[in-house]
Here is the input.
Amino acid sequence: MATKTLLEAVNEALDQSMEQDQSVVVYGEDVGFEGGVFRTTAGLQEKYGEGRVFDSPIAEAAIVGSAVGMAINGLKPVVEMQFSGFSLPAYNQIVTHVARFRNRSRGKYHLPLVIRMPYGGGVKALEHHSESLETLYAHIPGLKLVIPSTPYDAKGLLISAIKDPDPVIFMEPKRIYRAFKQEVPEEMYEVPIGKARIVKPGKDLTIIAWGALVREVEKAMKNTPDIDAEIIDLRTISPIDMDTIVESVKKTGRVLIVHEAYKTFGPGAELVSIVNEKAFVYLEAPPKRLAGFDVTIPLPRGEQYFIISPEQIAFEAKQLMAFKA
Amino acid sequence: MIFKDFDPLKGKMLQILDQNGKLVQPKLEPTIDKDILLKMYHTMVLGRVSDDKAIQYQRQGRMLTYAPNHGQEAAQVGSIAAMKDDDWLVLAFRELNAMLYKGVTLEQSYLYWYGNEMGSKYDEGVRVLPINVPIGSQINHAAGLAYAAKLQKKDEAAIVYIGDGGTSHGEFHEGVNFSGLFDLPVVIVIQNNQYAISTPRRKATKAKTLAQKAIAYGIPGIQVDGNDPLAMYLATSVARERAGKGEGPTLIEAVTYRMGPHTTSDNPKLYRSDEEVEEWKLKDPLIRFKAYLIEKGYLTEEEDEQLYKDAKENVKQTFQKVETSGDVPLEDIFRYTYDEMTPNLNEQLDEYKAYLEKAGA
Ligand SMILES: Cc1ncc(C[n+]2csc(CCOP(=O)(O)OP(=O)(O)O)c2C)c(N)n1
Here is the structure.
């Protein structure tokens, strides 16, 4: 089996989906001829032609709005927002139409489309290139939000997203696009949307993360052998896999949620609520969020304060273990 | 009158100085004071030198990403020089030369690209809005500045820059329409540098020119040789005059070329030919401007050499200062979120400080 980076896995998922299903089209800014600024769509235009893979004007609302029409009329658009920070001009289309067509038409129309976007910090970038905006999408009824953390999952989840009858926001943690390789099966396979992954079972403490932060949690806990943490990669932010979380917390009694999205009203708040509502009596310590500060993510000369480090994760894990009521 | 003579629909483009610095439209030669002409040229030389150096620094791993301006100096300096001191400059992100001309310091510019927000805090009295990365969104800001000026009867206008690719954005159209509707004192300069990252101009719109987009909004539009500082100056002066008289906005398409990569993480060889780049080299705005100034007796070869020498020294020293400026203080990432720190921000800052202390980090 070949080993691949997350970026290559995304490319392979797109390639195989296009090969298998003529209705899949791929477009966005610099996506066609150049194959994307990160090269996630490299080689696709050559293989499938300019009709199915093309460069769009710089107009995110047009990209997503046209995808709505295409999805209604027999295509499966997989569009790219160059960076999640630039998905906002399309936010109107996403919230007011993409998320609503099924409901608005009482099921007559539905939108099998995918909106891909690289996201997240830690890449020393300019303004609007480092955001973690999952809250904005997870909050909207009618959207699914999927975030892979490994090459294997990236391929399987993207294939599932393309096959999904509903619109999927697919956020790609660009910090780990090329960070490591993993064995990725040549054939097409699906990783189910809505299912979290237990990265490592454990009994002391549940740690929930997704995207690039999963690796940071793994690093942190490798260096903290005295705590047997159960690490959960959420993989799908919406809909949340409540069962896996609740079961884990019932076992461990402690939970740490790690995300780069802003803390206040962030996904961690929802996760804590689920834990409180469904596993309250099992808790041995207050649930803890380690999340992005409520500030605009800083430019590189201040970004190090914002980015969550393995040391911080280990520190919080120890604090949680030391908690006594 | 220039709008009739240089009608974009008739394929006309305003040029006064050709690529060799010869006056091809002597009647249109604008009268510009010697010291202004020299300020323009000095800015372009500093812009050129610091721009090229930024790329070098980046390649050496000493600078973050950078969006080069090489080739677009006249499009910026020719236009900004025709504006007035009290006017506002609204940026996209590839306007180093306009910024320098308007009083942003090289240190601030470098600091920004070095990843420090302080590089966007320009000096008191410098009427420049910070670099605006989301494509297209800045036009409406210029419209608002201009609306406020008009309502408060201030003799001010706003000049706003955008790239060719940016004209595809919805907000570009909203902003131009808004400005036109209320006859706002706005000058909109499209720097058509032929590419939006890898996407050539012809693949962004079916329209033959970008200038003609003005017509639908009921305002004049003109295509100008963007590598000709005199043509840019003339077109902008006329636009500024219109603005001052309450006649509304003007759309200027500066036809130019981005000689370098889109940013330092881009490889232009993937999407354009060396021959094309070579052709544009001959149209270098600094070559023709220098020839013009020498012809006028405002500049000598020796002075020119000295200008470059000084610029290089200036750039070296400025960058050294920036490079040793270090990281921003922790408090800085919090304190500019609101007028006053909120309870949750205070809590987050305290918690993080406590962590640093306990972890000995
Ligand atoms: C709304 C938005 N979408 C995407 C981007 C990413 N992006 C940065 S520069 C650029 C191309 C801009 O081209 P153009 O407007 O021609 O200006 P140039 O870079 O050539 O100066 C793109 C797509 C962005 N900054 N903002």
Summary: Chain B has a mean pLDDT of 97. The radius of gyration of chain B is 21 Å. Residues 74 and 282 of chain B are 14 Å apart (CA to CA).
